[in-house]
Amino acid sequence: MNLPFKRSKISICVGLIISTGYQANAAEDEIEEILVSSALNETVANTVHPVTILSGDELRQKVGNTLGETLANEPGINIMSYGTGVGQPIIRGQTGNRVSVLQNSVGVTDVSAQSPDHANAVEPVLADRIEVLRGPSTLLYGSGAIGGVVNVIDNRIPSELVEETNFVVEQSHNTVNNEDKTVVRLDASAVLWGPVC
Fold first, then answer.
1. Which among 111, 106, 120, 86 has a CA at the least distance from the CA of 156?
2. Which CATH class is domain 44-156?
């Protein structure tokens, strides 16, 4: 009649023996803590929003015949090329309609959206700045820009009068197809003096 009581004593003893053995094994399985630290060269704002900006001398050194050639050596960006005049950017493996190309923050509508073997209408040689956005910040430009956004700022239509006249001539030569390219850019404002009759 004391059988259930004996079974409970045996169960408790077996449980204590197993738990002490488990605790001994747990002490052996502890992993040594390793601390890794690194100095960040960027601000937190740039780390959270992965943005690449090319401007000034850096842009002039990297500029190519196409937008894809210009951005080809940036981290996470490759080029999809169907020849010397066509080079579309591939951002994190995404291309075509998943990469939105903007000019002065307005979407570029050209035949490159229909077929990747057509060049887009953006001229990187005329650009003042090229911005590449990746990650969640691209959602501001719509759901079609899941791969990334390339915004080419050229200030072709200035929002205010130009104070200084700026004249730039750039020339390049491509040995693959013996292509010569000359780009001329003039930024100036015409100011009328006196009353207009």
1. 106
2. mainly beta
